[in-house]
Amino acid sequence: MWRWLHPYAKPEVVYHLLGRWLPWVAGAAALILGGGLVWGILFAPADYQQGDSYRIIFIHVPAAMFSMSVYVGLAITALIGRVWQLKMADWALAAIAPVGAVFTFIALFTGAVWGKPMWGTWWEWDARLTSQLILLFLYIGVLALYHAFSDNRTGAKAAGILALVGVINIPIIRYSVEWWNTLHQGATLTVFERPPMANSMLFPLLTCILGFAFLAAALIFHRMRNEILRQELHRPWVKAELGETSKQTEAV
Amino acid sequence: MAMNPRRKKRLLWVVGMVAGVAAALSVILYALSQNIDLFYTPSEVVEGKGKDAVKPTVGQRLRIGGMVVEGSVQRDPKTLEVSFRVTDTGPEVTILYTGILPDLFREGQGIVAQGVMVEPTVMNATEVLAKHDEEYMPPELAEQMKGIKHVNPNQPKAFEGGE
């Protein structure tokens, strides 16, 4: 396995590989997410209780789901970085964390905007909302630690340990609405049960979720390429790469 | 594939650290579980909460969450005063409130009220929030499935005042 993986451990190879995938992933994100949002916001029926206000679900739920999935990815990356000490796993922390932080912020913001007309409040310190806010602080903490040391490896080590310990918060967010009584309702989408949601709303929601998956991947690929360039700035291949790109830009 | 002993040691260290923090945190959350609950249910107000059956005392500030009992909502025609009963599995608690209720407030709806107990089963609420469930469906389907016909989403909503 190592022999097969070995060439991919070179930053230059990863940079080019991600560069080849990026347009496809970004294109899929734009197409699927754009389609899902138009479908959900313009064509899906209004809800029997919440009218049109529920339509924010097409952003809120995917953002909240991937704020957690991206964190699991961050923790796995941190584990690889800590145990196998691959430098690119360290760099990936810096590529992944801001994407998750933005998704978390979107989930909290859309939740507040949705909560005001439906529940009657922007914010309530219930278990779901509070644990999601802690997730945002975890992301910010990982980023702050990563950049807090002049030695990049020390920063990545500290950030990785926080990312790993913070993964405990993920099941707490997931099950907060079941373990404690909260203002937030239970989960609509679960793995084993048919969701209590009409198909005309469910399908655009699932489309948006798929779109968000591609969006997360595209953003992470793009940020990872930037981080590789930043870390390898002094290497000849980066100089050649940047020189080449600027020539291409001039030609265009 | 045999693992390099140094990697194995690091892996054990990391797993041990996460497991340790998880164990500590779960003990804390278990100890605090009653405080993390956002509200008392009406049964807990009447019969007491937890193993020790702690009942809220008159004058205590708390939140109560339950379903609005059908037919219990009484509005004062001249002011914004409203009173209603909430229930979960049997016992009922009366909520008194003055102010604007959220759009989703209606009989049969889940609500969370915050306020002060003025009698063992009567609360003077300063805030009433509406809960909603995890079901989403168009109005026609809701009418078909549940016989619910209480909201017309196209109907203009009443003016919602600021706080």
Write structural notes for this entry:
- Chain A: It is found in: Cell inner membrane; Membrane.
- Chain A: InterPro entries: Cyt_c_assembly, Cyt_c_biogenesis_CcmC, Cyt_c_biogenesis_CcsA/CcmC.
- Chain A: It is a multi-pass membrane protein.
- The complex is a heterodimer of chains A (252) and B (163).
- With 252 residues, chain A is an all-alpha fold.
- Chain A is built from 9 helices and no strands.
- Chain A has helices at residues 2-5, 11-43, 57-83, 87-118, 127-146, 152-166, 169-179, 199-231, 236-251.
- In chain A, helix 3 (57-83) packs across helix 6 and helix 5 runs antiparallel to helix 7 (169-179).
- Chain A is globular and about 60 Å long.
- The N and C termini of chain A lie far apart (42 Å).
- The mean pLDDT of chain A is 91.
- By secondary structure, chain B is an alpha+beta fold.
- Helices cover 28% and strands 26% of the residues of chain B.
- Chain B is built from 3 helices and 6 strands, in the order H-H-E-E-E-E-E-E-H.
- In chain B, strands 1-3-4-6-5 form a 5-stranded mixed barrel.
- Mean pLDDT of chain B is 83; it is low at 150-163.
- At the A-B interface, helix 3 and helix 6 of A face helix 1, strand 6 and helix 3 of B.
